[in-house]
Amino acid sequence: MARKKARETFIETELVFAYAMTNRLADLEEFISGPNHAAITQVTRLSTALSLLWFWSSLMLVST
Prior knowledge:
This protein is an all-alpha fold. The protein has one domain (2-63). The protein has helices spanning 2-5, 9-21, 25-33, 40-63.
């Protein structure tokens, strides 16, 4: 809804991140293939950082 009223980089970047984190890949592909103002590189870096954080925290739980 917010995207229909204002096409802001922040809103579109958060939408891409939400699609990626909830594994809605079809929606993500559709959104990225059209015109958008999302900072895709920023989403990629944040997703990678969260994945590494999850991996290391799971290793800590297993080793204790």
